[in-house]
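Re: export button greyed out
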Amino acid sequence: MLQDRLEISRLFHRFAFGPKPGQFSAALKSGLAQTKRDLLNVPAIDTGAQSISLPVVTDLGPRPAPNTAAVLDFASAMRSQTQNLITWWLDLMVASDHGLTERLVWFWHGHWATSIAKVDYPLAMYKQNQVFRTYALGDFQKLSRAMIYDGALQFWLDGQTSTLKAPNENLARELMELFILGVNRYSEDDVKSLAKSLTGFQVTTSTGEVEFQPTRHDSNPVTLLGTTKHFTAEEASDFLVARSDCQKFIAERIWYRFISSSVEMPGNFASVNAFSNRSIAAAIKAAAYDPAMSDAKNQMVKAPVEWFVSACRALELIPSKLESSAKLIQALSALGQLPFNPPNVGGWPAAEAWLSSASAQYRINLAQWLVKQSSLRAIKEFDPDRWFINSADWLGVSQWSPRTQAALRESLAKPTEFAVLALTSPEYVVNA
Amino acid sequence: MDTLTRRKFLSMTAGVVAASAAAPVLRLSDIAEAAINRPLPSGTPILVLVTLYGGNDGLNTVIPYTDPIYFSSRPNISYKQDLMIPLDSQLAFNPSMKSMKALWDARKVAIVRGVGYPKPDRSHFSSMAKWQTASPERHINTGWIGRWVDSQPEDSMLAISLGSVLPPLFAGAKRSGSVLPLGGLTVPSGTLGMQCQQLAKPSRTDSSLMASAASSMRNLFSVSSTVQPILKAPAPASANLPTVAGGNAGGDNNLSAQLDIVAKLISAGSPTRVWSVSLGGFDTHANEANAQSVLLGVVSDSIARFLSQLSGTSRSSDVTVVIYSEFGRRVVGNGSQGTDHGTSGPMFIIGDKVNGGFYGDQPSLKNLINGDLAVTTDFRDVYSTLIEKVLQSPPDQVLGRWSGRTQFMRV
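Workaround output, generated via the alternate export path:
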């Protein structure tokens, strides 16, 4: 039973964004096998997601000249659209009935990590997010091709400056190192060759549109990982995706973000085999069924967005309806993780990186702000004799430690304090 | 706080508090009482690590300005020769590094040339991991400062990184350095605060990650109670820098804001031996010359301002600043007016106890290795020297056996 609690807790917090009130105890009743099927099954209609309206993101055109009235309007539109874009996505994470899809969109954002800090235009970032939605649990070969035609990614990694005369290695290197193969699975010469294959793209950043200009493309043969020929960008992408290193690498990344960021992936992790046809859904399903899911040592720290979203679900809050979107964005920035703003092309860190004294402070502050905006319905419905198990079920926590139990008991009469403590406890911040 | 330190503290803050009329008036005694009650013994060396993220182009930082190959290799991103700041007949600073030049002239700047590690890795993440773990051959999870923290008695104030996320540099096997955000740390008060402290206690059922979560909350309480009163006080004045428009030359930017906090806490006697600050944006694949120049100006001005702030305190000669980045960049420009990832680069070591000048061989522009600069000094030579001379500890327990040293510290 305790083992089932652990696995069900892991399913909720890693393959979705945590339970809404009532979901965890219902899952315990229906059992581990059924919960697994439910969480991996894509519902035909996602009423939760449908309740969230689309963000207003438009083509804002080129930036007007400095010191004009037009540039002020432009900047303010850019700010409000960016804010709208961020809260729209957070709303979806909280409201969607299919946590796994949202979880995968989030995973791919951290994988093909592109930041609006350089791209600037919210429309281009929105379009990239749509690519992640289209292929979230789809075919990795198609996802990779689509990303090469993604304006935000191209611009982020200087693809638009890379030409026959002057190839730029930025996109080529990251495509091999961070997106498809993994570090050290190619040579420096391969980086140079791939850079040539990727020349010729032009980006309109305000729309995220990508255009291929054959005259800027290097159509000479190159030697890429032992094969000499002219590769188009699509062919190069397919060629990399077909390599066994890609199979291993994507499985490694799934291991790192779903199973453990501290323990190395064992060679027999089921996602490796399952990814042989490059089906993302198959690799994810295999991860959920792998014995590693029941191994006590594979604990995961909730990254700030994951923590925030699961807290909103538990507290029945919708991010865009919080008191102030600006304040929310500030709080997530302070915690070091704001959607659409990864710190660099490697995405966000994991594990201990989120466990600093500074993070502890910002988590407590944000929890206090959230809790006071919640009805705290779930807490008020606890059975006074069963508050211990009721509160663990409410948050989908596998088990409270005696330490946390002692702190919570002192706050039983104060629901707001109780909620803050439960949400900032080591057992909630770290998924056992 | 001993009386001598206390008196110095009062005299140090006196001018500042009186001068800042607009700021809320803090009673001197409040600040003094609130200050560190177990100050770092006077004369204890302090290390300040400055990490430049993105791969700083060393060749446009310390420029071989009389080498024609430099100009022919990167026609679009080299600076005009007359704008560069010559250091000797071969090397010059980037035009924006005027403040650094003043420190160089005072013989406080050691430049170790061609620093790197064997088999250079051109990945930002792998390369920065090698620099921060000081383990280029084998991937490990602890940083070199983290391992040093492990070797010392437990003290949440011993090593402090500015920001909100723990850098790998500070991760130890047993415990980690603390992280202090720009706004300082404030803890919840009242019963919630008491319950949070209960939540921060160790539990026998904790896994290692849960134990880290609990200890980060404990550190929040211990660090906050120590630093918060000090952070409310104004930063030490820059004794010998010109004042521009009400502020010191150097401008308002994140690095100088981080260093402001470090200066405040050092001058208040914080028992901190290692500080970590950082600046990003050095990944200049496109339109490099201007962007990098701005960043190097920030680095150079912020460091000068920081040392100037400390110059009025008793700690000024205790501080050694070290600047590094994960790699240098390719010698030949890439045609987007930028440079791609390269290998070695210069490290800067700055302070009163530093013997200014050049160390290590300047990598040749003629004999490149696959288009890249050679590595002429292993970063472990530099680290060993810092561990020995600044942290005053045996390097072996941090780096394993390592015999190389670079003698840039005056004994």
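Chain B touches chain A through 61 residues (CB under 8 Å). The button fix ships in the next patch.
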